[in-house]
Amino acid sequence: MYAILDIETTGGKYNEEGITEIAIYKFDGHQIVDQFISLVNPERDIQEFVVKLTGINNKMLRNAPKFYEIAKRIVEITEDCFVVAHNANFDYRILRTEFNRLGYDFKRNTLCTVTLSKKLIAEAPSHSLGKLCRFIGIPMSDRHRATGDALATVQLFKLLLEKDTEKEIIQQSIKYFDNRHEKFRIQKILDSLPEKQGVFYIHNKEGSIIYIGRGNNMKHEVNKLFLTETTKGLKIVKRASEVTFNETGNLLFTRLKYHLELEKLRPKYNIIRRKKIVDRNFNHDHMMIIDKGRIPEEHAVILIESNEVIGYTYTNLAFQENQLSILKSMLTPIENKELAKTIIKNYLLKNKVSKIVRLQVENNL
To answer: pLDDT confidence of 292, banded at 50, 70, 90?
Structure first.
């Protein structure tokens, strides 16, 4: 069942508008099975431009019922229905505002015929109700009055139902009052993440990285981020379309990848604090730092030559670590050598790694 409606208001400041007229047609997908139409006394003045647009003035509404007198009927006719409107966000917000003033939490799932028509009648030059109806040949009367606009929306919605033969677009376009689509989206993202140490990247729908994070348990860290109520956290959740990740296997590689990529990618929602560069040298000019890899039989290796960080890689064969030419061919090179050196030096001062191997450097190395 669908409750297809249109609302006219007084105009005015956001969430201070009042309803002046409402029309609701209960539609079963084939025909109208019930209806409710009424002028409404908004108990406030109508904006002059709205009077000119709709023809509804304060005098006409003097003896009209107030919203609390029709509220029960609205609840009954919309119960167990999807609320459908042309620009449903507006009509649904107005209804919820009026019910909130009465202390009643009005919740319905909604469908917007603007959104649907953009997907199913994409060729239309305009998706405003009047121009769209003219484009597809739906007759309209009483434009900018609740009855006329709601009846036109019924005919438009009937056409959209027919065009969406698989009902996939309509199903995907429903806005559930309990945000279940949002919950499914977040759960799908979380299900794709491992409970392992590493660095994760939050992408928006265009694929751009908007946030980089890290942790011993990436799934836990992303979940924690998505549950935050901060302004930044809410913006990240709203824009998150996908989360990719790199397992690191150990804390040193986590810190190294995190800070190097923060500096290089500079995502929109990360706060990047410039690290104080360490100018002290390592204890050995030429060495390999070997730490735990991502799986038990793997090593994480960092190569340092002439007191510079050359690059890092993962190995699972001992001879790869013993043959420097092979090792070098496997390295991921590091561009910001000063930052890498600072991160590694600070880490070595406070933590232990599996092994540090001093290299005997030959002339041809």
So the answer is: very high
